[in-house]
Design a protein that fits this description.
With 797 residues, this protein is an alpha/beta fold. It is 41% helix and 16% strand. The longest helix is centred in the middle third of the chain and has 32 residues, at 316-347. Bound molecules: S-adenosylmethionine. S-adenosylmethionine binds next to strand 1, helix 5 and strand 2.
């Protein structure tokens, strides 16, 4: 540890609790904004930090991380290169400016500063703005546990790459457990915790140093958690004057996550080294850096909120009742919007596009059938074609009860046919009813927008329809052979390898023994695999899939064997053992016609896919994904026509970015909304009639609107934060922040379902479809954990 430069020492910390929250934080703001160097420090993080340091040295002590300890973390940022970094406890923004700047230099995306005191948060926001970091730093006001749970529920953060803990000492452990339980801290995350030796945080050190067995034994013993034990009383009561008795998260964490940790010595900004050691630590230390060790992680199934924190409104009956009530409350607004939209469209009708009028004169209109219009993707394509082509657009979808397909009420559709739902394993009723529609309507072009369970069935319909309707029939749907090659996870991985494209190490396994052969050493002398894997069921099973996302091998061969054997892997229940790639996830949507990519878009994936933001088509990452799509499309050849979407995991950046395809979906993706009402896109679909080629790839024109679903955002960004506030868990700051985001989406983004000239599907979706679903769930007692507003899918719990 190098010597401390005394000329830089802060004023000493005053005894008692009056060394903060006594007005000095606002005084600091005045100091900064009346500083003679104000103009020269604008936009300069280092300049702003220097003036904060000057205040700390010449005026009053500030509880900042300071230059010396700060360097440990900035070095760590340069090493870890976090995409998302979170700090717990922002105070006046010193660490936030220092680390936010370092994250930006390391090409990171977001730095979240979680601060409970709204006055301090305002100081942070003001200084961050002065430092020119507002584009990367987000200040979140509220108690850390409530903010973490809320931001996770709203899909704002899905993973924390680096977390700096510097807030209320007893909350270090409880907040860490909460992040583990929510799957935000996983293998690959790094934690950096301040003040764990002085003033000391024994419960936190004990937790990050415990083995799986120790944690499990503690959980089973029913021993009461004592998060304040060993922490100085003055620190346990540090914020009592303003916040009274502290309520901490009671999350259970993820005991299977084991950390590797190291302590790093340094100095307080006052120059005080860490000497008083409440722990039996051999040396004075300050920051502990801890990273979960790979091969030990069990990623728990995601939950909307941790059980121990769950307020009443997440429970089945109140949840459904409240949503029905909310929908009733929204009725006057949505009805006003519907009426106003109809009137405006009546007065100013949507002009027919030039291509629509021109084509109308020359050839008789054809019949285009779109299946899957209850989902946004089908509806968007139907609207696009009705707007820009002269053809008759008809639609079909499974409709078990009235109003289960909001898209059928779209004015872009001339006729709607209800299809029979598959009867358990038997898909004959669906196939027959769709074939009947194709024949009866003498369909010229069928655009299939099947859901995940309909991919194989739609391919079967294609073969039968081609036989029945002859060569004049065309379809945007892959053949059965192609669907099998792409849809089944293991077959797709083999295809990727055969095409010499990069692929994660993957193995189809039909028995536990096969799985274990890849994971465990065969003899005592042999080393086991160094890679970590995920074991996914090869069929479609959302529940199983979520529950089985466990990183393997586990800590010991015995645990690994026990886990794998529980899954009952067999010939009839095969699994794919796939290498775990720790990277950001992206998804793509493409339209391929006769082996040629005609339409392409890529965007970052978010867990519920409720927000869509297109990547610039010119970016190296989008180009690389397009290149991959083209290779797969060309391999398919002349007979390869359909929608094609991929999920990729991505490591690195710029030209050196590495792509790992993890799944292929031979069907349309909701990202198709990003094309808006593009005429080029409609033209590309018409190539499905067998015309032209070599026209190039249609991409969204940039800048392009981002998309959201107002129903999802109203609940996630407004209703939940408000209810949490009423339950005494949230804060006004978090409600305000949710509102800000909501208003931003309302003004600058577009709703995926609403459009002025075709507003009825939007009204039906929120005023009829969803209330009917909630009512059904109440009456039938069907539990659900999540909803997807764009696909109308209910995820059963
Ligand atoms: C030591 S200061 C943080 C210093 C800051 N990291 C820096 O180095 O510039 C601790 C901060 O944590 C905040 N805090 C305490 N408990 C909190 C909680 N439960 N959630 C969010 N912030 C909290 C306090 O208001 C205080 O501003």
């Amino acid at each position: 540890m190098a010597a401390f430069d005394q000329s830089k020492a802060y004023a000493p910390q005053e005894e008692g609790t009056n060394f903060f929250d006594d007005g000095r934080e606002i005084e600091l703001l005045h100091f900064v904004y009346s500083h003679p160097k104000l103009e020269s420090i604008r936009g300069s993080p280092q300049g702003v930090l220097a003036v904060i340091d000057e205040y700390g040295r010449t005026k009053k002590y500030l509880m900042n991380v300071g230059e010396d300890k700060g360097r440990i973390v900035t070095d760590l940022i340069a090493e870890v290169k976090p995409k998302t970094m979170v700090e717990l406890g922002g105070y006046v923004g010193y660490s936030c400016i220092l680390f936010g700047d370092a994250v930006r230099k390391a090409n990171g995306q977001r730095y979240y500063s979680l601060e409970r005191n709204p006055e301090f948060a305002a100081v942070i926001a003001s200084l961050v703005d002065l430092a020119g970091l507002s584009d990367i730093v987000k200040v979140v006001v509220g108690s850390s546990d409530a903010s973490i749970a809320r931001l996770h529920a709203a899909d704002v953060f899905e993973h924390i790459d680096l977390m700096f803990l510097d807030h209320y000492k007893p909350a270090y452990t409880t907040d860490l457990k909460l992040c583990e339980e929510l799957g935000l801290i996983t293998v690959g995350s790094v934690l950096s915790a301040d003040n764990v030796i002085k003033p000391g945080n024994p419960p936190y050190l004990e937790y990050v140093r415990s083995s799986v067995q120790e944690k499990k034994a503690k959980a089973h013993s029913g021993e009461m958690e004592t998060h304040g034990q060993g922490i100085l009383e003055k620190n346990v009561k540090q914020y009592a004057k303003r916040y009274g008795e502290e309520k901490l998260s009671e999350s259970k964490g993820n005991p299977n996550l084991v950390y590797e940790s190291r302590l790093v010595e340094s100095f307080e900004p006052t120059g005080v080294p860490h000497m008083s050691l409440p722990l039996h630590s051999p040396k004075p230390h300050s920051i502990i850096v801890a990273a979960p060790r790979p091969s030990r992680l069990i990623t728990l199934p995601r939950m909307s909120s941790p059980t121990s924190l769950t307020p009443f409104f997440y429970n089945h009956v109140p949840k459904n009742l409240l949503l029905i009530l909310f929908s009733i409350l929204c009725l006057p607004f949505s009805t006003f919007l519907l009426t106003a939209s109809i009137l405006i469209s009546y007065i100013y009708p949507q002009p027919a596009s030039a291509s629509k009028s021109a084509q109308h004169g020359t050839a008789p209109p054809k019949t285009v059938l779109i299946t899957g219009v209850s989902m946004t993707k089908g509806l968007v394509i139907a609207r696009l074609l009705s707007l820009h082509t002269p053809h008759r657009i008809i639609a079909a979808d499974i409709e078990t009860t009235p109003f289960t397909s909001p898209g059928r009420y779209s004015c872009s559709i001339s006729t709607f046919h209800a299809l029979d739902a598959p009867d358990g394993e038997d898909s004959e009723p669906y196939i027959d009813s769709l074939l009947t529609v194709l024949r009866k309507e003498n369909v010229d072009l069928w655009i299939s927008c099947s859901s995940v369970v309909g991919a194989v069935e739609d391919a079967q319909v294609l073969r039968l329809a081609q036989q029945a309707l002859g060569p004049s029939f065309h379809a945007i749907q892959f053949s059965l052979d192609h669907v099998r090659e792409l849809h089944e996870k293991d077959a797709f991985m083999s295809l990727v390898r055969d095409l010499h494209l990069p692929a994660p190490d993957s193995h189809r396994c039909e028995s536990s023994a096969e799985v274990l052969a890849h994971l465990l050493p065969r003899s005592s002398g042999e080393k086991g695999t160094r890679k970590t894997f995920i074991l996914k069921p090869i069929g479609v099973d959302d529940c199983a899939r979520a529950a089985m996302m466990t990183l393997l091998p586990l800590q010991s061969p015995g645990e690994t064997r026990a886990h794998v054997e529980r899954l009952a892997v067999s010939k009839h229940n095969p699994f794919l053992l796939q290498q775990f790639i720790d990277g950001a996830e992206y998804c793509t949507h493409a339209l391929v016609i006769r082996g040629e990519v005609r339409v392409f878009v890529a965007c970052p994936s978010s867990e519920l896919l409720m927000h869509y933001k297109a990547l610039s088509p010119a970016s190296p990452l989008a180009q690389k994904m397009l290149g991959f799509t083209k290779v797969v499309a060309e391999h398919g050849g002349e007979g390869f026509t359909g929608h094609l979407s991929f999920d990729f995991l991505v490591r690195g950046g710029g030209e050196d970015v590495e792509l790992y395809p993890i799944e292929c979906n031979p069907r349309a993706h909701t990202a198709v909304v990003l094309f808006g009402e593009s005429k080029e896109m409609a033209d590309a679909y018409l190539d499905g009639f067998g015309r032209g080629s070599g026209k190039g790839v249609v991409v969204p024109s940039m800048p392009c609107h981002s998309y959201y679903w107002v129903g999802h955002d109203l609940i996630a960004l407004i209703v939940i934060p408000l209810l949490e506030l009423l339950c005494g868990r949230g804060s006004l700051g978090t409600v305000w922040e949710g509102m800000e985001r909501f208003v931003h989406h309302l003004i600058y983004w577009r709703d995926g379902t609403y459009t002025l000239w075709d507003p009825l599907p939007f009204w039906i979706l929120y005023q009829v479809y969803w209330p009917a679903q909630f009512f059904r769930c109440l009456v039938k007692g069907c539990g659900w954990s999540r909803l997807n507003v764009s696909t109308t899918k209910v995820f059963q719990s």
